[in-house]
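Entry: 2Fe-2S iron-sulfur cluster-binding protein
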Amino acid sequence: MTVTPLGIPRRLLEFTLDGEPVRAPEGSTILDACRAAGKDVPTLCEGDTLRPKNACRVCVVEVEGARTLVPACSRKAEPGMEVRTDTERARHSRKVVLELLASSVDLSTTPRVAEWLKEYEAKPDRFGPDAARLNEEPKVDNDLYVRDYDKCILCYKCVDACGDQWQNSFAISVAGRGFDARISVEHDGPLTESACVYCGNCIEVCPTGALSFKSEFDMRAAGTWDESRQTETTTVCAYCGVGCNLTLHVQDNEIVKVTSPHDNPVTHGNLCIKGRFGYQHVQNRG
C-alpha cells in the first residue's frame, strides 16, 4: 500500500483573485494561487525547482495599492490582497516584454510562446532585424549537449542550477555587461575545458531550448524531431542505488533524451551524467 506523506499543515489565507475570493496555503506565491484557481498566467524564467529570479517579467499582475506591477512568481500571497491578472495594464506589459524578447532572440523552440504572441497581439517585427541581440553559431564542442545562445533570454536558471541551488559546480556564469551580457563558462572556452560535469541539470531547467541534447539538436536540424510521436516512460536509473527517477523520451523505438520528474523526492529533476546521458547501451543492438 502506498502511503502519501501529509507534510506540515499550513494555514490557509484568503484574498481576492480577479474579483473572486480564493484560499491559498500560507507561503504560496500569487502564481501558485493562480495555477490552483485555473488562471493561465504566462511565465518563462520561473522554475518549480529553483528560487524565483524575477528575470523575464512575463508573469506580472496588478495588486491593489501597489505602485508597480508585481511578478506573480515571487510575490507571496497575503491575506486580504486584491489581485487582478488580466487588466489592460498587465496585458500591455506582457505584450511589450514578449515583443522585446521575440525580437532579440530566437524563441522558435520555446513552448507556448507562439500562443502567447497571438493572445497578446504582440508584434516583434516592429523593431526590425537590427534588434537581434546575438548572431552566432551554436556551440557544438562535445557529444552530449549543445549551447545555442541565440535562443538565450538570460533567465539565469542554468546559472542557478549549476551553482549553489543544486549542482555546486559553478561552471556557468554571466559574462559581460548590458547588451554584451551572456551566459558563459570560464574564459568563454570550450565546455570540455570548463568545470562542467555534464550532469545536464542546466538543460532540464532551460525554458527556451538554448541548451539541448545533441540528439535533439541533430534531429531538429534533420527535420525528424517530432514530439507528437514521442512517448514518455518513467523508470529508475540502474547505474547506482540512489534511486533516481528517469523519464525516457522515445521516438521510433529510440531514446532521444532523458529528463527527470521534478516532484520526485530523490532527484527533484536533477541527475548525474550517467543518468542523464548514459542511455546509449539500452539501444546498442550490435
